[in-house]
Design a protein that fits this description.
By secondary structure, the protein is of the alpha+beta class. The chain folds into 2 domains: 264 residues, no CATH class; 121 residues, no CATH class. Helices cover 49% and strands 14% of the residues. The strands form 3 sheets. The chain has a 5-stranded antiparallel β-sheet, covered by helices on one side. The protein is globular, with a radius of gyration of 22 Å.
Length: 398
């Protein structure tokens, strides 16, 4: 997906008339030629060599299938699909795993593999596109020499935090790539450039067939780390933190931090939310986060795009999808900053969910009696046995 954020740079950087795509040895020379520019753009030094190799498109697809099976096992696939369907983010008929595979392989020109610490180029890729993508992916190889990228991206049980980490890595790589490919134009510092940046990304969406027909929730989730991650890194650089890249200790802990850096600066960390009952019959459990809430609001309102300019007052959340004979059941606890934010949650998310008609299902949106900042959403088969005693959250103080 790096193409989505970078292909338009061919115009700004003058990347036209490139020679044919290189074999392995020429690919290595191209990677080596980009390393000094990447160091200047990031303020970081490579501490070792960068391995690189070419793969055919068939090999790339086989590799991505293997990674998707590893990162998206059946339990997670079924759980994510269930919660997305129950909330109306994707249609019931959508094969989510097949769509993700098609998206990840669409027009791919190169990628960095943290497991093998190797930068791969795709044989037969457009030369200009390959150079653009290599500049981006080489930044990831450099990041991996300073951060445990593989373990950071394999955190389980908190997709929101994982999305925040991905946004930092992709945003940092996007900013650095702009500097590499247009070193003398100071594009990063121009406000008008970022408006063009957003517009170019939206235009590129229409040129990618699979991406263009994907549901809004999927499209925005894929664009988020590049677009909003880059905005966060711009803020990070302007805040004069003294660090060219966040460390493990200073890494943002939620997508709220990415979308609204003032919350990061204020130390507004997520409130832990946990379930009190056992994991019996639990299909999947995770955190939605600010990003998913913003997407859900846009989808429920029938909007064509997500514009998360205003913070929602999200403080934390946790959901579980339970198995039942009549279909999956969702129990979702939200923690908001204050009563006004909780009421806004009920109006923007709760009310549309209550109005939705899902055959054989029942929906409830209930504010907490003990704390008006808390809301519980339950979407489950009408005859679900746990309606009599909906799974409770564990009481954890703020």
């Amino acid at each position: 997906m790096a193409r989505l954020a970078l292909v338009w740079l061919a115009l700004a950087a003058g990347c036209r008339g490139e020679p044919p795509a290189p074999p392995d040895t020429a690919l290595a020379r191209l990677v080596d030629s980009l390393r000094p520019a990447v160091e200047r753009a990031t303020g970081l030094r490579f501490t070792g060599p960068t391995s690189s190799a070419l793969k055919t498109r068939e090999e790339i697809r086989e590799y991505l299938i293997a990674r998707l099976r590893e990162d998206f096992p059946r339990e997670r696939e079924e759980g994510v699909a269930a919660v997305y369907r129950l909330l109306g983010l994707i249609p019931d008929s959508l094969d989510l795993k097949a769509l993700l595979l098609d998206l990840y392989t669409e027009q791919v020109a190169g990628f960095y593999d943290p497991k093998t610490r190797t930068l791969f180029g795709v044989a037969g890729a457009d030369p200009a596109q390959l150079r653009l993508v290599l500049a981006h992916e080489l930044v990831h190889a450099l990041q991996h020499q300073y951060l445990p990228v593989d373990s950071l991206m394999e955190q389980k049980g908190d997709s929101d935090r994982q999305s925040a980490v991905q946004a930092v890595l992709e945003g940092h790589a996007t900013i650095a790539s702009i500097k590499v490919l247009a070193p003398d134009q100071n594009l990063v510092g121009r406000p008008e450039f970022w408006q063009l940046f957003r517009e170019q990304i939206r235009q590129q969406q229409g040129t990618m067939e699979v991406f263009a027909r994907a549901p809004l929730a999927i499209r925005f989730g894929l664009v988020f780390p590049y677009l909003h991650g880059a905005e966060f890194i711009r803020w990070w650089d302007s805040a004069r933190t003294g660090e060219p890249l966040p460390t493990v200790a200073t890494m943002p802990r939620s997508t709220e931090h990415i979308l609204h850096p003032s919350r990061y600066f204020a130390g507004d960390d997520p409130v832990p939310v946990r379930f009190a009952d056992s994991t019996t019959d639990v299909m999947y459990e995770d955190t939605m986060g600010e990003l998913e809430l913003q997407v859900l609001i846009a989808v429920l309102a029938g909007q064509a795009d997500v514009r998360p300019d205003r913070a929602l007052g999200w403080a934390g959340d946790r959901f579980r999808v339970y198995r039942s004979e009549a279909g999956p059941a969702l129990v979702w606890y939200g923690e908001l900053d204050d009563t006004a934010s909780a009421r806004r949650f009920e109006g923007l998310i709760g009310a549309p969910l209550l109005a939705a008609d899902r055959s054989g299902y029942r929906t409830s949106v209930e504010p907490s009696v003990s704390d008006p900042r808390r809301v519980r959403v339950t979407i489950a088969p009408a005859d679900w046995v746990r309606w009599k005693a909906v799974p409770q959250r564990l009481e954890i103080g703020r």
